[in-house]
Structure formats: C-alpha cells, structure tokens
Specification:
The structure is a single chain. By secondary structure, this protein is α+β, with helices and mostly antiparallel strands. The chain has four domains: 101 residues, no CATH class; 91 residues, 2-Layer Sandwich (Beta-Lactamase); 65 residues; 144 residues, Histidine kinase-like ATPase, C-terminal domain (Heat Shock Protein 90, 2-Layer Sandwich). It is built from eleven helices and twelve strands. It has a five-stranded antiparallel beta sheet. A five-stranded mixed beta sheet has the order 7-9-10-12-11, covered by helices on one side. The protein has a two-stranded antiparallel sheet with strand order 6-8. Helix 9 packs parallel to helix 10. The protein starts with a helix and ends with a strand.
C-alpha cells in the first residue's frame, strides 16, 4: 500500500514535469513568449516539487537509519500527519522499532535470567578480553573462591597475586586440570578449565573454576565414616567371641586354682579354647592384611606384554589348583602376537582373582568350563574376557559386586573385585560385568 501511494504521487509529479517541459519546448519552437514564460515557470515549480517530494522521503529514511545507527529504538514516528505514503512509512518504522525493542527486552530478560543462574552456582566463572584484559563478566563465586574484591581488569590480579595470575590467565588448560593455588595463608585445590571464543572481532577467554577442597574433605570424611563402620563391625565380630571364650577359660582356671579338689582343670578344653582364640586372632590379622591390600596399589609399571605369555604364566600358576577341582580352563587367543601395554604383575593378579571366582561359581555345575580370551574390539580397544558357565550373579546384587567388603561367600573378604576395579582404573581402563543366573558370567577387562 505504501509503495502504490508513493508510486502514484511520484508519477503525477513526473507527468507534471513532462507537461511543463513540453510547454517550454513548444514556446521555444514557435517563439511564443507566453508559452516560454509559462513553461519555464511550470518547469521550475515541477522540478522543485519533485525534488522536495523525493528528498523528503530520503530524509525520513535517513532519519530512521540514523536512529538505528545509534540504537535509538525508543523514537516514535508520527503516524497521523503528513502525506499518506509518509504515514505508512512511519508505521513501518514504528513497527520495526517495536519489534527490535521486544527482541531486545526478551534478550535482556534471558541475560538477567542466565546471570542469576550463574550467580547461584557454586562454580567460579570469569570472561575477559584477551587483548585488553578487560573483564566482560564474573560471578561472586569466582571472587569468593579466590578472596578477591570486584575488579574490572585482570591486571589487578597480576599486580597483587602474580602466581595465581600465571596459573589462571597465562596458562591454557586444554582439559580440566586439578591445580593447587597458593593463597595468602593457605593452599587451595581447584579444578580449572578454560576456552577462548571470538565475539565482535575480539577474542575472549572463559575460565571456569571449581573449589574441590571442601568436596574432597567431605568425601574423605564420608569415606572414613564408612571405613570405621566396616572396621568396627568386622573387628567386633572377631573380638566378641574371643572375649567370651577368654572369660570362660579364665573362670575355669580361677575355679581350679581356688578349689583344686572339686574343680578339675581340663587341659583338652583349655587347649581347644586357646586354639579357637588363635584361629580367631589369625582371622582378624587376615582381615587387617586384606584391608591393607586396598591401599597397597597406588601406581602401575606398564610394559609391553604378549597376551600369549600372560596366559601361559597364569595357566602354570593355576594348574595345581585346577587338578583337584575338575574344572576345564581354556585360553583362547586368535592373534598369537597380540600385545598389551600393562603392568603384568597386577593384571595377573586380576585374572587369577577372576578365574578363582569363576571356579567357585562353577562348583555346582556338571561340566564346569572357564574361557579366557583376548582380542581387539571393533572400536580398537584391547580387551580380555573371563567367561564361565557357572551359577551367575543375582540381579539384585549386581550393583554391589564391586563395593569393598561386600561378599556373598561365607569365607570371602569382599576385597577381590574391588581390588580388580582399582587396578583397572590405574591402567586407565575399566571392568565390566555381564551375568545371568544359572547361565554364567562374563567379566571384561577393557584397556
């Protein structure tokens, strides 16, 4: 509609200019003084009117672009005065301003919403201009974690805490890194990750800082509580019968000393009692040694080991145990030169543990078989599998099978699988378990 109104008005003025020029040309051609004067006057008026008409619209558009340039979207253009095409043009300008204001308001609301969320999270965040060092945004958690007042440029930190500045702003952490920062009177353990991004022809760096000191302390405290609970339970289970038996033996000896004629001392009972105390004490010592084995493994010494050599060593170690149990142990290796980069001693310990568990799981099976295989998966991951056709693991305890001290065996310590998992984690790998009751179990070691 605006275009048609503008085109109609422009056409009238162009036609008026053509008529005036025609009249002027007629006067010149026929030497008609009145036609020349009238044509000249009409042409001047038509040109001026056409110029005013066009320049007026260009000025309106230029005025609108000027407000856009300076982002003055609050301006309101008059829609009730002036020519119809200009009114329509003003309506269009106002609609654009209104739309941009709505978009800007929505963006501001989203920004405030996001800012409030980032203020509430317990993770320090800062973004700054890489070239100038000017801080684009930071949250209170970042300032609180590092005990900084609010600052506008990272040079503030460079002057006051140069070591922290070097670690945070001069060092690039491609992956999340655990770093110890030296504060004024203490050290602070934090996780740092950062990334660089481009925005409006400027480079900005975003740093995320998480204080893990409190988390580590809390986790350590919880671990100690659980450990003390387990240790107390196990020790009390061993000490209670020892104490009770010791009291009984002491009463018998005391009675025999006080009344030797009526209370005869039975040496066999004393010997049996002392033997029980000895066994219980040895059991308590065994538990303590088993617990120590969880803390014993702290690092691995990796070397390139052929799977064939690893299997041969394990087969030799387990041969005496298998002869009495009538269990068939089969090692499967499609690639005789398959090599793993592992700590051979620790992985032998893991496999022996898993095979012994499989032997226990197949003791009620008519034809017990255990398969140990090694290969490279389709994803390029090295893996060793221990498969048995035993009784399987009940689904309700699958989630607890790797928990320290958890065991379904009467004589089990609950340490073996926990230790296996720890060894695999130290190798940068993992251990997976698949099992069905009455059908068997598959334990996979993934490197």
């Amino acid at each position: 509609m605006t275009y048609k109104s503008y085109l109609f008005s422009l056409t009238l003025r162009v036609l008026g200019l053509l008529v005036a020029l025609t009249l002027l040309a007629y006067g010149i051609a026929w030497l008609n003084t009145y036609a020349i004067i009238g044509g000249t006057f009409a042409t001047v008026i038509a040109v001026y009117n056409l110029y005013q008409f066009v320049i007026k619209r260009f000025m309106e558009v230029d005025d609108f672009f000027e407000s856009v340039k300076y982002r003055d979207f609050s301006r309101w253009f008059v829609e009730t005065k002036g020519p119809q095409d200009i009114r329509e043009l003003h309506k269009g300008f106002n609609l654009v301003n209104k739309t941009i204001k709505a978009i800007d308001s929505e963006r501001q609301a989203q920004f405030v919403y996001l800012q409030k969320i980032l203020e509430m999270v317990n993770i320090g965040i800062i973004a700054y201009n890489v070239e100038s060092g000017d801080v684009l945004w930071t949250n209170d958690s970042f300032l609180k974690t590092l005990d900084f007042p609010s600052f506008k440029n990272i040079s503030f930190i460079e002057k006051r805490r140069p070591k922290i500045y070097d670690e945070l702003f001069d060092t690039y952490h491609s992956n999340t890194a655990s770093v110890t920062l030296e504060m004024r009177q203490e050290t602070l353990k934090v996780l740092i990750s950062d990334t660089v991004f481009e925005m409006a022809e400027h480079s900005f760096k975003l740093i995320v800082l998480q204080n893990i000191e409190e988390t580590l302390n809390r986790n350590e405290s919880e671990a100690w509580k659980k450990l003390l609970s387990v240790m107390t339970h196990e020790i009390m289970n061993s000490i209670a019968p020892i104490t009770s038996l010791a009291e009984t033996l002491q009463k018998n000896i005391q009675s025999s000393l006080e009344q030797p004629q009526t209370s005869e001392l039975e040496l066999e009972d004393i010997n049996a009692g002392l033997n029980s105390i000895k066994k219980r004490s040895e059991g308590l010592m065994k538990f303590a040694k088993t617990y120590r084995s969880l803390n014993k493994v702290t690092h691995v010494n990796k070397t390139k080991v052929k799977a064939s050599n690893l299997f041969s060593s394990i087969e030799e170690l387990l041969k005496p145990s298998l002869e009495d149990k009538n269990v068939t142990l089969i090692f499967e290796l499609n690639d005789p030169i398959l090599t793993f980069e592992i700590d051979a001693y620790l992985i032998e310990q893991v496999l022996i543990n898993l095979i012994l568990n499989a032997i226990d799981a197949t003791n009620m099976v008519a034809n017990p078989k255990i398969f140990v295989s090694a290969n490279i998966s389709h994803k390029g991951t090295g893996q060793i599998k221990v498969t048995d056709n035993g009784s399987g693991i009940p689904e309700e305890i699958m989630d607890s099978i790797f928990v320290p001290f958890f065991s379904t065996k009467k004589t089990g310590s609950g340490i073996g699988l926990s230790l296996c998992k720890q060894i695999m984690l130290l190798h940068g790998g993992k251990i997976q378990l698949q099992s069905m009751e009455s059908k068997g179990t598959v334990v996979s070691l993934l490197f």
